[in-house]
Amino acid sequence: MGSLYSEHRTWLHAVPAGWKLGLLVVVCAAIFRLSSMTHLGVAGVLCSLVYLSLGQAMRQGLKPLRALLFTLVLVLAFHAVLQQMDVGVVSVLRMASACLLSIALTLTTSSGELQDVLERLLTPLQRFGIRADRFALQLALMLRFIEYFFVVWNRLDDSYRLRTGKGGGFRLLAPLTIQMLQTARRVADTLDVRLGEPPTSKPRQ
């Protein structure tokens, strides 16, 4: 599978995944409680510095960064039409800060590290008969698939642009859906074999 995880080692790779996830939750919660444009501006600059400090690893995150910029422009334009520029600027600063930190986390945290953290956090649920390891695997796969399908979407868009000279847009929904279904089928079959799940009563369609 393609991945946004960068093999270029940065200082953030050395930080344990649990610390990164915890700090991301705390910082994002604090950012969304701020309402002052000055404070949000400072937060935005600090989050940008964290992202820029990743150096070579930033190249892996250019595509999600372009998508983020496009979204921010749309949000700002929407509030401009409603003549609510103050609200628009505050929303954009919040979104940009949180997304920059999230992309930095994605670039520097592997799926295995993420799954280990989730499994430790979910261990108390075993008292209620819930398999923490499998629940953590499901959550990790869900997060991994979001990242993976974003990469697939970009590949399809690049291919379409090479053939036609323009972006694919909504035309890519059908081929992306087919690839999502095929990937889900392969992963389900693999998990059946690796985890020793009993065969289903009905064959999959």
From TrEMBL:
Keywords: Membrane, Transmembrane, Transmembrane helix. It is found in: Membrane. The chain crosses the membrane at residues 12-32, 38-55, 67-85, 91-114, 135-153. It is a multi-pass membrane protein. InterPro entries: ABC/ECF_trnsptr_transmembrane. Belongs to the CbiQ family. This is Energy-coupling factor transporter transmembrane protein EcfT. The lineage of its organism: Bacteria, Pseudomonadati, Pseudomonadota, Betaproteobacteria, Burkholderiales.
